[in-house]
Amino acid sequence: MKINSAVKLGTVATFAAVLLAACGSSTSSSSSSQTAKSQTLNWMEASALPSMDISKATDVVSGETLNNTNEGLLRMGKNSKTHPGVAKSYSKSKDGKTYTFNLRKSKWSNGDPVTAKDFVYSWQRTVNPKTASQYAYLFAQVKNANAIMKSKKPVSSLGIKAEGNYKVVVTLTKATNYFPALVANPTFYPQNKSAVEKYGKKYATNAQSNVYNGPFKLTAWTGTSDNWTLSKNSQYWNAKNVKLKKINFKTVKDPQTALSQYQAGKLDATYLSGQQPKNYKNSKNYVVRQGASTFYIELNEQKSKLMKNAKARKALSLAINRNQFVNKVLQDGSKVASGYVSTGLASYKGEDFASAAKTADGTAYNLTKAKKLWKEALKESGESSYDLTLMADDTAAGKNATEFVQSQWSKLPGLKVTNQNLPFKTRLSRSQNGQFDAVVSGWGADFADPISFLSLFTSDNSYNNGKWKSTAYDNDIDKANNQDANNQAARWNDLVNAEKTLMNDQGIVPLYQQAKPQLVKSNVKGIIYFPTGANWDFSKTYIAK
Questions:
Q1: Could you point out which of 30, 66, 309, 392 has its C-alpha 20 to 30 Å from the C-alpha of 164?
Q2: Three-class secondary structure of residue 88 per DSSP
Q3: Which three-class secondary structure string do you get for 430-487?
């Protein structure tokens, strides 16, 4: 997932279990004697909500909102396992290619029944090339999905069908062990066809132009407002076990303002940055969320001849002292990125993927070598100097990143760097449209497998904003997804080789692996945090006395 620089959607779970941390109460149950009269949670976000369209949402803010207002066939839950969602049970064929989901009787927030047809419609809408979903590639293992996305087969041929109102049958191209984790992802949630058609272009652009089938429903959001509100969905099949009545999301970009609101009782949780983590690390309300997410810089190779030169890209990477940035600037528990795929995401035979794929210079600091390579790149490109604009979010972390990188890159001869910090939604749009020289991006894994990161930088992936290309990389990812898909050792080697190719050619410039320090009021119980995917589940949360 796309993530903003303060706190994105990404994807696979074969090498390691999906990570999960539950905060507050160790049990999801609560009695009336334990709960406060007011069940309202006031939650901080550093960026506004960009989208509520299941087929088009790509970021973590949209993902967490969708995860709490909607529900798929399965839910990600405690013990790092998938749990029943709209599907009360499912079975898998012996060859692993066919899944049959048996649905419970549940309702949309407008009272319509949630049926198998809603899943068929949603999946078909997402893979339909006319929808232009950036997340359509997640359906690649579903029969005919790739051909549909290339307009070679009709949408109706997608390997999902409704057998009556309460049975969904999915056919895959090959056995895919992580498929249950995929269907717990918001991109695989159902959509109400009548609502999509009723609201047309306004569908999912504000709170009222949508319907919801999850624990909460979106009741206040204009589509551009910095704040939005979720209210308990009385039509949800498990509403009796949802304690919160309301969740108020408030966008606060300045960390000190957020902290002041937390101390004044206007927020129940706040993210910390700068000196704040150091000042509050001994507080009983302090917690650090270790995420499976990496921040990196993309360089626009379509826009610049110089950025096509691997020496220039390597120079820009080698010029950044990441240890200084993480330890002296961020100071929030984040770690220097060892490569692109985050540390701790996946392991094989006791070796972490990030260690297995680490290269000598991928995230190293060597200013002398950087200057040498930069001079060579300028000469080879016919340039004597170069002006570059570095784009990032307008959050505190985004500004920290651009200011620090600017100071590092300005040490390269003939390079002038101008910073551009924009609202998250604007930064996403410009990145996707190639309107940048260099941009600080972030990606969080949707599930615990390296492919969730590595699939982004194939030549034809819509998230490959800088348009870096490598035939060797494409071939390794293709082998991991196809001929070696069910050969664990061979697939692991394919993915390790792909990461090494990306780093050795400096297709991107990794910066840091994000940690998110927070203060959370001690009476907020039952929060579930996922380092992968949509991150937050508030369906078990309650306010204690």
A1: 66
A2: strand
A3: HHHCCCCCEEEEEEECCCCCCHHHHHHHCCCCCCCCCCCCCHHHHHHHHHHHCCCCCC
Reported residue count of the chain is 545
Say how far apart CA 341 and CA 446 lie, in whole Å.
12
d(C-alpha 195, C-alpha 211), whole Å: 7
Rounded to the nearest 5°, which phi and psi values hold at 394? Answer: -95, 20
Res. 242 pLDDT band, cuts 50 70 90:
very high
User: Of 503, 507, 468, whose CA–CA distance to 360 is shortest?
Assistant: 503
Residues 475, 334 contacting (CB under 8 angstroms)? no
Beta strands in 335-406 (DSSP E): 335-336, 347-348, 351-352, 386-393
Between helix 310-318 and helix 367-380 the angle, nearest 10°, is 150
Average pLDDT, the chain: 92
Cα–Cα distance measured from residue 345 to residue 292, given in angstroms and rounded to the nearest whole number: 6
Which of these ranges, 1-5, 211-215, 293-297, has the smallest mean pLDDT? 1-5
Q: Helices in 225-339 by DSSP H: which ranges?
A: 255-263, 276-280, 310-318, 322-324
DSSP structure class, residue 220 = E
Contact call for residues 99 and 198 (beta carbons, < 8 A): no
**Residue 326 contacts residue 505 (beta carbons within 8 Å):** no
Where residue 415 falls among pLDDT bands split at 50, 70, 90? very high
What the block records as the tokens of 222 is 């204009």
Residue 272, SS3 per DSSP: coil
How far is Cα 103 from Cα 186, in angstroms, rounded to an integer?
17
Token pair belonging to 484:
């070696």
The percentage of the chain sitting over the pLDDT mark of 90, rounded to a whole number, equals 81
Do 395 and 336 form a contact (C-beta atoms < 8 A)? no
pLDDT on residue 312: 98
pLDDT attached to residue 31? 63
Question: Tokens 């929030």 label which residue?
Answer: 332
